[in-house]
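Entry 0007
Protein: N-methylhydantoinase A
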Amino acid sequence: MIAVDVGGTFTDVVALQDGRIRTAKVSTDYTDVSGPVLAGAATLGVEGATVFNHASTHGLNAVITRRLPKIGFLTTEGHRDILDMGRVWRPAAAILDPRWRRSFGDAARPLVQRYLRRGIRERITADGGVLFELDEAQARAELDVLRRCGVTGVAICLINAYVNPAHEVRLRELVREVLGDVPCSISSDVSPLAKEYARASTTVIDTFMKIIYSDYTARLEKGLAELGFTGQLNFADCAATLVPSGRAMEHPFRIVFSGPAAGTVACAHFGELIGEKDLLCADVGGTSCDISVVTGGEPFVNTTFELEHDLVVNALANDISSIGAGGGSIVAIGPAGEIRVGPDSAGAAPGPACYGRGGTLPTTTDTCLMIGIIDPHGFAGGEMTLDPALSRQAFEALDSEFTLAQRVRYAYEMAVNNMAEGVFNIAIKNGVDPRDYSLVAYGAAGPMLLPAVLDTVHCKQVIVPPNPGLFSALGLLSADQVFTANRSAYLVLTPEAAPRIDALFTEMEAQLAERLDPGTRVTFHRSMDAHLVGQSWDTPFVPVPAGTIDGAAIGTMISSFHDTYEARSGNRFEMLPVEGVTFRVRAVLDTPKVTYPEIPGRDAEPLAPARTTVLRYLGDLDADGEGAQEAAVYDRAALRAGDVFDGPAVVHEGLSTTHVGAGQRATVGRYGELIIRKK
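Output (structure tokens):
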């Protein structure tokens, strides 16, 4: 089994063979994203592998940077500006800012330019009736405009098409006649759900991803075949569930944000193994810190997510919040002379100053190198040698009245505090007490920085799992293969609605069953999004019973809604009727998962550090000017289950470094995980 996670700075590849985990880390190349994937696969070897599970931020980065193909957008006449208006929401920080504009609006960087958004004469009513027939002559004329403009794909979203898709289906046929075999997505196929804007934005993203990923997938499949791979290529979706590549390309909008989601699944799987089911998950890479929550062993899943503020995609997605805090976060001086860290990042090119690739600005990686936490000769598995002199030069070049020691110390504290604030805010947002949760520190920079937040966040403990630098990729070997179908239908839950609801679930389950190979072991999970009659917003993932939906099942669904509503809001209104909005089926296939080998306990030989080192700038700066601390240095591979050691200490391994601070104690678990607590 092989998995790859394509990140903004590094591409992580892991292989599980005969119970042994092997890893490779390659710098991401934005000019040819498949190159590092294939290079890592070649390093580990893919002959005989049964699956190759893939997650990537390739599509997400294309949207964020607007390196997008030219596509057209067709909608009902009079609604061409739906993509510009969005939901007319502002972020909290911009409510009183008259200069604020949404990032994808026509006044900023629209996904589809207004002249490429064309209105089509037609109208379907809310109950599926036809108010105006599709004007095919006018539609052909608009498509001819798009042809002359040179579009490479078309997204179609007509009003109320989720109820009656007839006009969208015919428009897709006209696209083929006028434009030829270009990628074309229709909303009734991509996202047959209520709420026009979210359906439209999802369909546009799907069209982009078809164009971006079709060539990428072809190159990846060809390259893997040349390396001898004969197994199944799977793509992870935004909830880190796996879909065969061919099926994923049918609706590729679901894979646009797959990378960070895999880490959450890895945390949930590993937490179950060690008996820790309430987790705050923090993946600190080169560019960002991605934070999520696992409660009771289950990641928190949303029915939609945002690529940018108000840029909505209708896909099941692990709820992940990202902050601009990572190993590549740039240290700068603010207008008042204060030290700032992030959100700008040096990325992989030119990278931190210590990389010696032309970067002149200090970063968090330079900070930890100056302190002495990072071994300059063992970085990235020993494949890179860092230059502390360049880090020092970058800090000295800052326009600041602080001494060098203060610059490094404050840069470190700001990096840690940024992450602590992010973790605490996510805990509060999800209504959990961080004191009851363990913080899982992973990503190449997570173990190096996150144990220091114990003094601020006051979580129960910090857990550093095995192979933290590639833990998100390991999550792809912990994921299920899942197929999902959903339908929107505004139906008040009464016995009279039972036949219609039963037909919806029967149709969706039959549709999913047709996509599975005979004899496949599968479990169907039903749910619905519903609200109290008169409410605008839905309560998602209300359980729905299996079997025939009759009057008794309707009663169970109503009770389940009130239970779910009370758990989320603290209120219960049983006197009010309930209206179902979206009905959903998930087909979960029996999927092999990664197993972590247990490490042996220590024999008669006592634990001893490999050596000692001096960490600078972390102690009292007034005493000697450099705040020196003597720290023990351990090789993680030499640690044994049950080992206990106190900080200050540094634990080195191939692709990550763990820093145990003064006043902290680390215990080694049975799978080699490090459990760090305050003494």
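Curator remark: The longest strand covers residues 481-492. The first helix runs from residue 34 to 44.
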